[in-house]
Design brief:
Chains A, B: It comes from Salinivirga cyanobacteriivorans. Chains A, B: This is Acetyl coenzyme A synthetase (ADP forming), alpha domain. The structure is a homodimer of 685-residue chains. Helix content of chain A is 38%, strand content 21%. Chain A contains 24 helices and 29 strands. In chain A, the strands form five sheets. In chain A, strands 3-4-2-1-5-6-7 form a seven-stranded mixed beta sheet, sandwiched between helices. A seven-stranded mixed beta sheet of chain A has the order 9-8-11-10-12-13-14, sandwiched between helices. In chain A, helix 13 packs parallel to helix 14 and helix 17 runs antiparallel to helix 18. Chains A and B meet through helix 5, helix 8, helix 10, helix 11 and helix 16 of A and helix 5, helix 8, helix 10, helix 11 and helix 16 of B.
């Protein structure tokens, strides 16, 4: 497990270090030297006495005690070396760069298991094998470049793929994205993405730890661990974005062939990310852009001022933000007029604020000040400023940097002229700033960040269900489908409203039964054959008084022995289902029924247990939500009751994890209630 | 209008040319000099006798004759100068860089109109005002940088915004995108995007003209001209991509404030682009990526081989392509086995073809050869090759360049290591190649390009309608809604099937009427009061024989004088509507009815007239298409009949442009037919 020897070693040995900086063993040593590692640095190389100016030990047995070993030797030599290091050299942390382990074949998998056992035996930490290493404020333990600019408030980046980690850094670094640490977990033999995230959560210190985490994941082995610590970090004020690749069917195949692991279901991934509050990205460029937005102050509302010296990009950004659900509100009034006075004729302040190709740094300052102080309907600013190449724009970017220091509202710099003013952009980035070169990629990412889900609370309010009764039904059940009677009992125990019926012959019992069924009800005489002909059927009975009155009347009808009641069932078809997903727990799905499921696949999912707010979110994100809200003069469907069924379904799954699949299909929803008309439950213990 | 003086001038004068290269007049002169313009180059500057080493005339009257004038003087001086140039100097082409015209105020608009009049009077060409100029193989007539690498097969780029043109070039040039010409049309006083496209169409020469056109448009003033020439170019083998900004409501405002013009309806823009076969993009990065794909050989099928030395990007690309409707087919068989033999242990050829971090240039060559020659189920290759920074990769990129010369299947280079191997990428681009740095942006763009619509044929097959009758109804109608009788007549004249009825008392007439109504029909006796009781109603009569038989029987029923027939109407609610869109002509919309329109907005649009194939496309792109195809054991809806109503609706709009709005709502669609049950027509002459 992660320890201080891994994070902040007093001494490091590179086993397999060499003078050849075109190979991992040579390059990682060079990176450590370039990074001026402050502790003792050793090398083991059986053929040399000196490597890159350092003393080299020909035999690992000759080493002094050492905290961390970075290993760049063939897989087959690793176990013995680790044996010596753990037993004789008090080494408690290992980074294995070498490949040739479980990713390659069965033999490699055995070597890997052997190594994990040896490291675990001394409570050691193991990163890799088959990775690029680890990089933090204390040492550059990676064999790759670029070595990003390190900043305590930079990104903590954990990657399940080494090459992808490099390429993600290459997407972010040129734009100014800074890093605090990079963990490449390789085969995750001992420490995977989840374990590193857990560590970052458990060691989080407000005001000291970085607030931005990025993940690149090909497999989620421990979704519940990921959920727990990602949501915990986010509740502490962190922001997390992640790429989970392999979502498409073909992509899953690609991920499998690469890592030898089965792909997780993509819907479950979406659900767990939403529950945690993680922003899901689908590529390196998007991940870098979202991370760059995370590095800015929080955008506290959806109103953006677009400040520009060129019309086109402002229009495209307006489209992107507006289509993404953000606002570019009109700016007007005396303060807007006063601002306009300071700009050249032909400028516009109505938003986008266009101060023309001839606009100056001073004018930009006036505009930013007005947006910060005068315009209450502005929550953040996007500043677009490029150059046709006529003159330098250092003054503008310096001003922008100054204003970014002063302003509380976030200011996003969109500097498109990556050719014409490359030097000015470089100087701006050197001040610690980040550039968004493309306004549309920025706008899409900002919308995504702004609309990200909130993490579930630490102790979510989950509805109570009758656990004793549920356990009794489940424990007695065999694998396969539950009988209809047991299904009814299970729904009752779970507090899921179902279409019921009652047969009563006592007035008070009939009223109680009607109240339990829920008004309106249908009352029918029991006994007479042609019930309608004798006045023995009453539809749409709406209250207890009417039940009493009708009971008295109906019981006097000839041959009548009792009253049968059923709820008046009308309403819109709805659907709620649940499915056990390997490792993820149970997923509950909800949507409109019929064609909405079958043709439009208009269903949302959440991982059980589910809070009320989460269930409401599932309902409101449906494409067909308009039907639930009420459309064409139709009554709405009771959202609270629909949500209640979803949360109770979630609670049932917690109580009865043996349920493999369960459908409430259809439910009938109306303004008053939502009732399960048919249900199926499949047990797989 | 565009003439040879504009495109290939023998002589150019820069009016307002100066030594100050930080201003447009100085910079455009520098660009002309740097570009080694081969003709005579003059300068007019009232204060100097020599400018940038050239003789400068203090008075435009002193100039010799000159083909093209590039003007960088204040707006108010332009008309007089143009007067002299057109009348005394035989100048027939003008590029006005200066601002201060219609984009600024009323006064400027008058100056602009005056200039257009003067230029038109001599059949001259005018680019601008308020633009960055024109750049082609003959001269660098722009005042901005970068000056892209010019290539006769590079992009012809027409932009409605000067600054945006610069920023788009800055997005494309670093990736290797090459240009043949750049037209910045500014205020489009005489020549707009449409006119330039028309010129490119009319002067197109197979084998000589470039095949790729890019457009950046803020307003479509002449949609029909755009449609005509864009589709014509595409039919000739060209590829066109365009950004039309201002699509969102807020974006339209931004566009208006920028250009002083009303925004076109965005749905109409989508419709006209689809009809023309233009790929619509929504940002600079996307436009540059699509253009880069256009510069590669045509992808002839949807099967892509992903060739990679790193797993992560391959998985993300697989996801992007697969979600975009392309295939990453399994590769297997003896030839695949033979290829695998040539790779290092642990490689995979099943697609993605992963030849590992240690993979060599030679292996890449073997893989590409196999994909080109051996694997019939592969139509194109995406090659992902970055670097962790250990050693140079010139050999790999040189090999890639060689293979791209040899192969017929397109090869798309995805080189993500823009930091680690920046020099190698630069050298690859210098060979004329293009890089796609982000695999997901590439994958999304490739899917978009592959699935782009085909342009309408030059002479589309439009159904015939009864023009005489239609004109008669329309000519007699007042503005407002047509009467129900006239609506029925209009539908009949347009050949749109409607729910009709007939009353007949002759056997043959009844059969004819039934055939006209369409089987099955309902037959009812006319005369008897309680028709059912006397056997006077027959449902679901399916053929002429039954009509004859039932006619004979029913006419003998007491009091019967005639037979009333109606079609048996059952089916799924559908919708077809039409609306006149300013400048675009009529837009016809089609979808499923009811909630599909009202809640899901599931409607597709096309510009009239509409071909059968186009109508089928409108139907098949519906999200609810599954219902039309038939779902849950239900019959499908007759697509041919649905399409027929759409094409006839389009033809009706051509015959009667006075129709402002028309709804067929609902139509009832079944396996046999689609029938208009209700219709509304609004005339606005």
């Amino acid at each position: 497990m992660i320890n201080k020897q891994l994070l902040n070693p007093r001494s490091i040995v590179v086993v397999g270090g060499s003078d050849d900086i075109h190979k991992p063993g040579g390059k990682v040593l060079k990176n450590l030297l370039d990074g001026q590692f402050k502790g003792d640095l050793h090398v083991v190389n059986p053929k040399l006495d000196e490597v890159q100016g350092l003393k080299s030990y020909r035999d690992v047995n000759d080493l002094p005690e050492v905290d961390l070993a970075i290993m760049a030797i063939a897989a087959k030599f690793c176990p013995d070396t680790i044996d010596i290091l753990t037993k004789k050299k008090n080494t408690r942390a290992f980074i294995i760069l070498s490949a040739g382990f479980s990713e390659e074949n069965e033999e490699g998998a055995k070597l890997e298991a052997d190594i994990v056992e040896k490291v675990n035996a001394v409570d050691g930490a193991l990163i890799g094998p088959n990775c690029i290493g680890l990089l933090n404020q204390n040492y550059n333990g990676v064999f790759t470049t670029p070595i990003p600019q390190l900043d305590p408030q930079g990104v903590d980046f954990i990657s399940g793929s080494g090459a992808t980690a490099v390429f993600i850094m290459e997407a972010g670094v040129p734009k100014g994205l800074k890093f605090n640490s990079v963990y490449s977990v390789g085969n995750s033999a001992q420490l995977g993405v989840e374990e590193v995230l857990k560590h970052l959560d458990e060691t989080y210190e407000e005001g000291k730890s970085s607030k931005v985490k990025l993940l690149y994941i090909e497999n989620i082995d421990k979704p519940q661990m990921l959920l727990k610590h990602a949501s915990s970090l986010i509740r502490k004020g962190c922001k997390i974005a992640a790429v989970k690749s392999g979502g498409s069917e073909a992509g899953s195949r690609a991920a499998s062939s690469h890592t030898g692991a089965l792909a997780s279901s993509d819907v479950a991934v979406d659900a767990i990310f939403r529950k945690a509050g993680i922003v899901r990205c689908h590529g390196r460029e998007e991940l870098a852009t979202v991370a760059s937005i995370f590095m800015h102050p929080e955008l506290k509302g959806k109103n953006i001022a677009i400040i520009t010296h060129a019309g086109g990009p402002a229009v495209m950004l307006t489209d992107a933000l507006s289509n993404g659900g953000l606002e570019i509100p009109h700016i007007e009034g005396p303060k807007a007029d006063a601002l306009l006075e300071k700009l050249f004729p032909g400028s516009s302040v109505s938003n986008p604020i266009d101060f023309l190709a001839t606009g100056t740094a001073e004018q930009l300052g006036d505009i930013i000040d007005a947006c910060e102080n005068d315009f209450d309907n502005i929550d953040g600013m996007a500043v677009i400023f490029g150059s046709p190449g006529l003159f330098p724009v250092y003054d503008v970017y310096d001003l922008l940097d100054e204003k970014m220091k002063q302003c509380k509202k976030p200011i996003y710099p969109i500097l498109p002229s990556v050719v014409n003013v490359a030097d000015e952009i470089k100087s701006f980035i050197a001040k610690g700033r980040i550039n968004f070169p493309d306004e549309v990629l920025f706008g899409n990412a900002l919308s995504k960040v702004y609309h990200r889900a909130k993490p579930v609370p630490e102790n979510p309010a989950i509805p109570e269900v009758d656990n004793t009764k549920i356990r009794q039904i489940i424990d007695q059940a065999d694998n396969g489908y539950l009988t209809p009677e047991k299904v009814q009992e299970l729904l009752d125990a779970a507090g899921i409203t179902r279409a019921g019926e009652s047969v009563t012959s006592d007035r008070d019992a009939t009223v109680t039964a009607a109240e339990k069924l829920g008004f309106p009800v249908v009352m029918k005489v029991v006994g007479p054959v042609h019930k309608s002909d004798v006045g023995g059927v009453v539809l749409n009975v709406k209250d207890a008084d009417t039940v009493r009155k009708e009971f008295d009347r109906m019981m006097q009808i000839k041959d009548t022995t009792a009253i049968l009641m059923q709820p008046m069932l009308t309403g819109t078809e709805l659907f709620v289902g649940a499915k056990r997903e390997d490792k993820f727990g149970h997923m509950v799905m909800a949507g409109l029924g019929g064609i909405f499921i079958e043709v439009l696949k208009d269903v949302n999912a959440a991982i059980a247990p589910i809070e009320h707010e989460e269930a409401i979110g599932m309902i409101q994100r449906l494409r067909g939500y308009g039907i639930i809200k009420g459309t064409r003069g139709q009554d709405p469907i009771n959202e609270t009751e629909f949500a209640k069924i979803i949360t109770h379904m979630g609670a049932l799954m917690e109580a009865a994890p043996e349920i493999f699949e369960m459908d409430l299909n259809p439910l009938l929803g109306s303004k008053e209630k939502v009732v399960a008309v048919d249900a199926r439950v499949r047990i797989e213990k």
